[in-house]
Amino acid sequence: MPEWLFREKAPNEKARNPMGEEFFASNSDAAALIREAIQNSLDARLSRHAPVHIRVSFVDLQPEQWSEWLGDSLWTHLHAEDSGISREVGKPGYGCRALVLEDFNTTGLTGNMRCDVHSEGERNAFFHFFRAEGISDKTETERGSWGIGKIVFPRTSRIRTFFALTCRSDDGKTVLAGQCILKYHRVNGKYYAPDGWFGLQDSDGFLMPVEEPNVLSRFMADFKLARNGDQPGLSVVILYPDEEVTLSRLAEAMVSEYYYPVLSGDLIADFKDGETFLRIDSKQIDYVVRKLRLPAIEQQIRLSRKHLGSAEPDIVLNMYRGNRPEWQEEILDEIAKEKIRRLLDKGDPVEIRVPMKAAKKTGEVHETFISVVLLRSTGPAQRPVFLRNGLIISQAGGQKTRGALAAVIIDDDGASNLLGKAENPAHTNWLANSERFRATYMYPADHISFVKNAPARILEVLIAEDEKPEADVLAKFFSLPAEGNKGPEPTGAGSTEPPPPPPDPRDKPYDLRPSPRGFVITGRKGAAKKMFIIRAAYDRLRGNPFSKWSPFDFRIEELETEFSGINKARMACNGNRVAFIPDADSFTLRVSGFDPNRDLRVDVQVKEPGK
């Protein structure tokens, strides 16, 4: 008979809790569960001629239904004083709620089930799901490749316990196993390792899954699985799911994280809880997005539909010179600029293919590309959305774009493989210091910067004259001449005086210092009633950063400003400038919200009002 088995701690074994204290303290997250589970299902797609079908359901069981699956042995370990599980969760004799996630048209957990070591180059989904942690057999072109995403299953359970029933496409077998991840704990005076296993133990102590048809049939019936015995794929049953993980939050996470494969027809998802049923597919997604009130996703769906519905991009930019990725003037020629402007002015999404080179340390250089989709917008500046093989890289950042919404879509193998090497374990960001990335590719920081800032660099050169900041805005507030308008030139010999020498820095009536994501300026003796004009700009490799500032970099009026000792009526912000006249020497002005990945230059001028 199958049972729950925990291994006693070996004498010389370290007492190490594999996931750390934060694993047991953190609340579960519906978005993390959907993100990790679905990316693995998409990677395991069996037939490219049919979508991956996901079924998410909640099931309520009575004690007599599930006592076979937990039993006294597991409760003894769960309620050990140092297990990390609250004694208030899952008291024996009470009903049990379970969350079921099933995928169809997937391979299931294939591979040698008796394998207990990782073999480089050998695909073994069963081993990597049940017997490995932090090890994967996936490539960087796939969505998940770190081998730790499956931790979301026990993390979502308040008793850190789940089952997995899989029908395997390689040998047609259906097998069942369960896992429970606790802390190192003590039962009846003996110490046990964290991991518990539901299954069978053979004569040499090796743990194996259950294959007995009667056991499998009871399990599928008790937990109301949609899977029968001959449908390849995986069914995961999470016991006592976190109360914050609800049907609506799971559906919202599905739409927010995976609208792209839904739109492309690669994914269908059904959600069921009692009599409530919701389907998300390419036909229903617009209705679901409106029902869930997700306007930002509506706009991104429009951008993604443009890419998916276009056989060819609207515009192909020129390749940069050399192998180091950098934005050069000739990348965007006059013909391309005019075409992009014209298409944006029509109010339709515009798809731009941006060529790039993946330069490896071996000397190999492969040409690849990313796709940038833009849509005219009058709303506040926003960061682009980045998608690699349909997976949203949610914390990639990039410079905000003003005047247009942007999506960067990476689905060419060359660019996808390059950026896959740079992804963090959660697949939410690209890191230039990733060991895997730096070991493989040249110019790691340049590659990432080139991709992240592609929309901003394109839009920078498309600023129409009426979008440029007015030169005399500050003059309207303070009666100052506009920059560049210095009045009539003096005439006659000797009519000009040499400029005064620069003031001693020790005599400056202010102190300027950096702060997190910005700067702080504070007044000193002599500051009161003076005119302060501050310019900010991101540093450039070449040229004057202040003259190269663009509204697509930032606008100070859209950033966070905190001040004291300054009358708001005597302060103005415009573009990359802020000007003010402090009431007292001891003023303070803090500006924050700049891009932390770029070097900020700040220039301060102090003048007498009216001069």
Structure description:
The termini are far apart. 38% of the residues are buried. It is globular, with a radius of gyration of 30 Å. Helix 7 runs antiparallel to helix 8 and helix 7 runs parallel beside helix 9. Strands 1, 2, 3, 4, 5, 6, 7, 8, 9, 10 and 11 form an 11-stranded mixed sheet that branches. About 8% of the residues have low confidence. The protein folds into 3 domains: 258 residues, 2-Layer Sandwich (Heat Shock Protein 90), CATH 3.30.565; 157 residues, no CATH class; 122 residues, Immunoglobulin-like, CATH 2.60.40. By secondary structure, it is α+β, with helices and mostly antiparallel strands. The chain is built from 15 helices and 25 strands.
The helix-and-strand class reads alpha+beta
Apparent shape = globular
Largest sheet: 11 strands, mixed
> Between the first and last Cα atoms, what is the distance in angstroms?
92 Å
Tell me the fraction of residues in β-strands, as a range.
Answer: 25-35%
Number of strands: 25
CATH architectural label of the largest domain = 2-Layer Sandwich
